[in-house]
Amino acid sequence: MAAQSPARDLVIIALPGVQRQISEARSTADVRAGSEIVTSLVTVAAGSLRAQGGELVIPGGIGDPDGLPNRVVALAPPGSGASFATGAASAVHDKWQDLLRKVFEPIRSAPTPGMPKVQWVCVPDDGRGYGWQWARAQALLTARRRVRDFEPQEWPQRAICTLSPRWPAEDIPPPNLQNHEQATLSATNWVKRRWQRIQGGDRFPSTLSIASAPFRRQVLMLAANDEIGDEINAAITALSKEAHTVGGSGETRVPGALRCFKWVT
Questions:
Q1: What fold does the segment set 9-148+160-174+183-199 form as a domain?
Q2: Among candidate residues 70, 40, 41, the one with its CA nearest the CA of residue 58
Q3: What is the pTM of this model?
């Protein structure tokens, strides 16, 4: 007779709002940043549960952040699920404050009510098995999502964020902004806008780069043509020189969309 699995608490932690993060965007870089911010916070929650001794069910591994859901499911020793969830929620909020500190230097207060929003439920094993725990946790989480709880806020004489009008715009923007980066944004959206910079990663291709990628790829294909390639290459070179004369930030390549044939930038 197979031994029964030990009784454990089922913990589910959810970070709602990823769709709103994506919808409140002005560029493809904003869309990507909004998704990656939520992913980074989910990764922190998963890491916290695992560090406390929980067994991760979803996600099965947190080494590769691509495709992470916006929730974490874990099993915890009996009676410890609630404390594990509380610790993970605290770790998520600490990570968010760290992101704010990286964006707003020097450190100062930046209100972000409702961001991040961490919801969790814990269902102990009462002998009815994992299936019952899962169904019960899903029902509780659905009920939790229907509760629109918030602290009262008041921001007199403040401009409204142009991306998320439910938040006030910051009176003092992050330091070292270039002219084209000036905007009327809330603290949350400044994190989104400065995401690639504070992460130290490559720039995400601009909306114009992605939109024009098929056209530019066709131009490069013509540049590889033996009959008209020299003429096309000369035109590309002349255009590139003029673009550098005008100045501004360099264009970011679109991975997989632009492939050089004879012409190499």
A1: Alpha-Beta Plaits (3.30.70)
A2: 70
A3: 0.74
